[in-house]
Amino acid sequence: MTDDTVVRTEVDAAVAVITLDSPNNRNALSAALVGQLRDALSDAGTDAQIRAVVLTHSGGTFCAGADLGEAVRRGLSPQDATAQGAAAMIDLMNTMVTMDKPVIAVANGHVRAGGFGLLGAADITLAGPDATFALTESRLGLAPSIISVVLLPKMTARGAGRYFLTGERFGPIQAEAMGLITRALESESELSADLVAVCEGIRKASPQGLAASKRLTTAALRATFADAAAERAAESAALFDSADAQEGMTAFLSKRKPEWDMSAS
Predict the structure, then answer these.
(1) Beta partners for residue 133, in sequence order
(2) Handedness of CA 217, 220, 226, 232 (dihedral sign)
(3) Cross-sheet strand order for the sheet of 52-57
(4) Tell me, what's the pLDDT at 128?
(5) Most buried one in 9, 78, 193, 248, CB count within 10 A?
(6) CA 125, CA 201: separation in Å to the nearest integer?
(7) Interior/surface letters 132-143, b for 16+ CB within 10 angstroms, e for the rest
(8) CA 145 to chain centre
(9) Are 142 and 135 in contact, with CB atoms under 8 Å apart?
(10) What sign for the dihedral angle of Cα 176, 180, 185, 186?
(11) pTM listed for this prediction
């Protein structure tokens, strides 16, 4: 491995443990991270010796979403960077949903933006005590458009209705209650023990049984994924190109309130 490696894979008794390992930029979805994650998922998906994938992270953030700054530094316009990020997010979510092997996401840090897409596309999601969640897109003049493709089928309507709109931060207990995650664990030791239990259960299953069972649990999402993703990508592009989004991003980078912010804080 080289210093350019930002996604690392280890195999533990037929389970591929894929770690997002770019803590300096909060495991943001840079071109390097996206490419290496796609390759790691593909390798695990085609390896007959691998029974399941665990997707986890180093550092205090599971994933902060698209790394638009990195894309712009590579010479892309903001519009092209946004389009590239949307396409990458759709590809990663689709890969996770459609691969025959179960994907278990483990988050014990901050989850923001595209990080929700990775959680939503996973079959099982465990969160530790240090996990925090916030869908802050509305505060920037945007919406959680693309990630909604995998979130809305799993979250309760009331949960999505509150947190999609307000951008409030919430914790693992609320995330479990609204179906965003499978289970909230109160300590790192409990998180580790629950992951072991999940993986041991999967190791007892036949590859055929796992694949057939996953197809049942993802059938509705897979049937609508392509059309929904295309619609949400177009919506996302239009929002990013709007005056509200320009004001929201400018205010965020300037560390000031956007012009529409009427809050007391």
Answers:
(1) 111, 170
(2) negative
(3) 7-12, 15-20, 52-57, 103-107, 124-127, 183-184
(4) 98
(5) 248
(6) 15
(7) bbbbbbebbbbb
(8) 13
(9) no
(10) negative
(11) 0.94
Count of positions (residues) in the chain: 265
**Per-residue confidence (pLDDT) for residue 179, from 0 to 100:** 97
The full set of domain ranges for the chain reads: 1-186+206-265
22 contacts: CB under 8 Å, gap ≥ 6: 6, 28, 30, 32, 33, 59
What gap in Å lies between CA 95 and CA 84, rounded to an integer? 16
Q: Kindly report the three-state secondary structure assignment for every residue of the chain.
A: CCCCCCEEEEEECCEEEEEECCHHHCCCECHHHHHHHHHHHHHHHHCCCCCEEEEEECCCEEECCECHHHHHHCCCCHHHHHHHHHHHHHHHHHHHHHCCCCEEEEECCEEECHHHHHHHHCCEEEECCCCEEECCHHHHCCCCCCCHHHHCCCCCHHHHHHHHHHCCEECHHHHHHCCCCCEECCCHHHHHHHHHHHHHHHHCCCHHHHHHHHHHHHHHHHHHHHHHHHHHHHHHHHHHCCHHHHHHHHHHHHCCCCCCCCCCC
The pLDDT score that the predictor gives to residue 82 is 80
CATH code, residues 1-186+206-265:
3.90.226.10
Residue given tokens 């709109």 in the structure block: 165
Q: How far apart are CA 126 and CA 172, in angstroms?
A: 9
Tens digits of per-residue pLDDT, 101-121? 999 999 999 999 999 999 999
Determine contact, residues 103/18, Cβ cutoff 8 Å.
no
What local confidence, expressed as pLDDT, does residue 1 receive? 41
Closest CA relative to residue 129, chosen from 168, 167, 196, 175: 175
